């Protein structure tokens, strides 16, 4: 099944307020939990456009920032919460990481097309890098049975994010946690014994390109949750256009999940998705 053929969960029109109900630290990452009782439950791989309801700007005149696109980390079925994984890498994400209980997010979503379930007896194999682990956590929640997760991080501080998935295998660039090397090295080994897998991946573009190439060489299907600059989330600004084998697509409406076989390359400009 192609991710593009799924009936997406539609976002309510316009931005809505979502009070922050919790905040957790996992090494270098912050998990923000917000209440969204009026919004639908998202599909794994969909994303939201987030901004702080107050003080969303910088400089002497508090010039407003654009909203930031974030994959949903978790959406528990038994309540109305949404969880988002954030790393402080600039003024916008710094402001989001400052939020505490009773502060408010302004959000739009869920947006885009999420992951499609495995077919033809294939088993899911999750591959994530950095904040790209977010859509894999909710996908692992939604899939039935045990699901292997391979996660790559810069160092041990970032690898604390592995706590957000069940029983992951971890790689770090500096060897301070888990395998010393790239997560795609773990994937290479796993594919030696998993020819009936379907790979679900999210992470920085170079990692996704390595995943795409490995799966292409072995004729293993893969779905990539891709990153690109997003300013609107509705396809109006054309800021997230990427080339495919059949022309250009806008990741915010035709993705962010794209079948790897549709791509010549997964190298696209990264953004806080």
Q: Can you offer a commentary on this structure?
A:
The protein is of the alpha/beta class and 273 residues long. It has 2 domains: 3-110, Translation factors (Elongation Factor Tu (Ef-tu), domain 3, Beta Barrel); 123-262, Nucleotide-binding domain of ferredoxin-NADP reductase (FNR) module (Rossmann fold, 3-Layer(aba) Sandwich), CATH 3.40.50. The chain is built from 6 helices and 17 strands. It has helices spanning 91-98, 134-142, 156-159, 183-192, 205-217, 251-254; strands spanning 16-26, 29-35, 47-52, 57-58, 63-64, 68-74, 81-87, 104-111, 123-129, 148-153, 169-172, 179-180, 197-202, 222-225, 241-244, 247-250, 257-259. The strands form 4 sheets. A 7-stranded mixed β-sheet has the order 12-11-10-9-13-14-17, sandwiched between helices. A 6-stranded antiparallel β-barrel has the order 1-2-7-6-3-8. A two-stranded antiparallel sheet has the order 4-5. Helix 4 (183-192) packs parallel to helix 5 (205-217). The chain starts with 15 loop residues before the first strand and ends in a 14-residue tail after the last strand.
SSE order: EEEEEEEHEEHEHEEHEHEEEHE
Reported by name, the CATH topology of the largest domain is Rossmann fold
Shape: globular
**N-to-C CA distance:** 24 Å
Alpha-carbon Rg, integer: 18 Å
